[in-house]
Design a protein that fits this description.
By secondary structure, this protein is α+β, with helices and mostly antiparallel strands. The chain has two domains: 40 residues, no CATH class; 93 residues, no CATH class. The chain has four helices and twelve strands. It has a four-stranded antiparallel sheet with strand order 11-8-5-12, covered by helices on one side. A hairpin with a 4-residue loop joins strand 9 and strand 10. It is elongated and about 55 Å long. The relative contact order is 0.17. Bound molecules: zinc ion (2 copies). One zinc ion (ZN) binds next to helix 4.
């Protein structure tokens, strides 16, 4: 293809040859790496690295007790998302679907709440694995 993109259609940033290497292309066209990152990754609440959105909805970290279906509450901890949707909402509120969440463990101490306005967070695949391994190996065991 001789028609090299020269500008990202989303942020209008002029693309240099180094940008072109990390460009993302799909059926809707292309976007620069920064725009792709914004739409397709999230900040892990354990290591702060970018997690892939594909892995985001496998595990849920609940930082503060959060409303669940039928007026119940889900307490802080790490949950495996067993089924979707794991949350529902109406015009005013949203709540978690506890039937679709499996409690894995208490809130690990090394998590950082990334968004004080949102009681839940997500983990990158690496941290999900670390937490699953941590659940299987009791604390103090090597
Ligand atoms: Zn862009
Ligand atoms: Zn992580």
């Amino acid at each position: 293809m001789s028609d090299q993109p020269t500008q990202c259609p989303y942020c209008l940033r002029v693309l240099h040859s180094s940008d072109l290497e990390s460009i993302h292309q799909d059926e809707d066209g292309f976007m620069c790496h920064d725009c792709w990152r914004e739409g397709n990754t999230f900040a892990c609440c354990r290591c702060r690295d970018d997690g892939d959105n594909e892995d985001k909805h496998k595990m849920l970290v609940v930082f503060e007790s959060t409303a669940a279906r039928f007026g119940a509450e889900i307490g802080p901890g790490v949950y495996r998302i067993a089924n979707n949707p794991y949350w529902e909402s109406d015009i005013l509120n949203s709540w978690l679907v506890s039937e679709h969440l499996e409690r894995l463990c208490d809130l690990p101490k090394d998590l950082i709440d990334p968004d004080p306005d949102y009681p839940c967070g997500h983990l990158c695949l690496e941290c999900q694995t670390a937490i699953i391994n941590g659940v299987e190996v009791p604390e103090g065991a090597v």
